[in-house]
Amino acid sequence: MSVEPRGYEYPPQSIHVVPLPADFEQLFPKPTGLTEDVWPTAQINYLGFYLKRLSCKTVLIEGHYIDRDFIDDLALFYSRSLRGYPNYCQRLHFFSEELDDDRWKKLISDANGGKRERVRQFLQKSYLGFSVVRPLPGSLIGRTVLPTFPTNTAEGHRRDFGATREYRVHLAGFDLVVSGLAFQQQDQGVSACATTALWSAIHKVAPMEGLPFATPAAITQAASRYFLAGGRALPSEGLTIDQICEATRSSGLAPIVVRGLALEQARAQLHGYLTSGLPAVLALQPLPLTRSEGHAVCAVGLKLGEVAPQTNPDYHFRDVATSVMAVYVHDDRLGPYAVADLQSHTLPSGDIVPALVIRWPGEKAEFETCVLRAIIVPAPPKLRLTVARMRSLGVVIAEAVGERLPELQGRVDLSCRYRVSTEYQQMAFDFGLSDEGILELSSRTVLSRYLGVVHLDGPSGPLFDVLLDATETQANPSVLCCVSRRGLPVAGKPLMAFIARRLGGTVIG
Amino acid sequence: MPDPSDPARGAERAESESRTERSSSPRSAEEQQVWDALEVARQKMKPMTKRELEAELIPSDLMSFRLKSAQ
Question: Which CATH architecture has domain A254-379?
């Protein structure tokens, strides 16, 4: 008898290609024992449902994958368990093309025969993203990035997924790309719903600022460093909004917190932040309001309809934020891009509050209705001008323009958002500016990295933009310039110039 | 040094007035009307903007609201 040799073996790597099963749960081992949860879990059912909607035909199973998020969870929590959790995961890749093991071998062979780029392009054309499968029996779904649905809906509405980004994926020597926003299921050990919602949001904003991605373990640790109101940090007992803010700051970002007061106000906030590419953590309280605790989801996109006519006869403009019909959310009880219709709800107290009705995509049945208590936006630290402050100037300008240009018949549509200044300068070459105007904007005007853009649209196209220095806290006097757009009628040009002078900005036309 | 007689820099010279000078007084009756319209709009929009700005004031009980949903 001698001591067993341990620590010498490497785990095996394998790639298997199988058709997407009719019952997606067949891919996963059923947990043993008597568990509290139903099987298959809602997340697995949802993932299978979503993949069918994406016309997925094939699943490629990568047997060994080191996932940065899971290995951090393991280091913080699971490594101290009696059970020996492996430090690696499996990863599923999804394709719209029908493939099998033989076809995969042929593709590898073709690539080896000088057709690597052609094979890569073939795989890329049908690539539908990936899902990491963690070795955690009750919480299998780890980091998952799937593409969004197309921009136009079957009902003629529009989807805006500004808060997504590109992910580069390395599979067997091929570099693939998928656009989306990372989702993962809470594991109830290191992370709760708020942790994963914040983690998803940070996945979009951190690379904008050149910051590293915070893992769920890092978020939980940062959140509980100074604010541990009660209970243990681990296993996670959820996060308060205070803790979400602390974890956001710890990630190098700045939290913007806004209450959900009314439907129109919530719409305006969500429209401003999400169309600017900033995901938001939504603090929800399920109805009926019998529980003192809430739920968190990450808002990723918007479903947009027509801009509503102005309901106040004294106003001379329309608010583009009224076009928001629903929010697409990562709900870790379901999966990525669940639909949440934005509505008003009257509480027993008589208060009218904004509410979200969460549904599976394309399904009518309601999963849950919740009151929207707060919106938490992890923002770049130098973005100090909030959407509310931008709008406080925007509505004044829109109203004055609508009133002074009656020929527009109230068709002055206001929207407010942020843009990176270099991106705006590039766009401006298509604005139809004079040579002098584009020279002024590109070469003689100082711009902050993030611009607040008050944008006015008219019946014939964009009227003009008011560019604000987003490093300031007040919208005025932070006006940098007013930029003329193609839809501005001749009578509007002196109007824009007079407004620019009043606001202290220059005129670019 | 840029040539001050360069016509391409005309716009820059026209905008050489400071930000405070620019917004201090209107140059014409027409401009005055627009400035008045802005002031009227500012007063008219106050209830809307006040409500949106109030939403950024977060009470402490909301900051302590725990988000913990079982799967």
Answer: Alpha-Beta Complex (3.90)
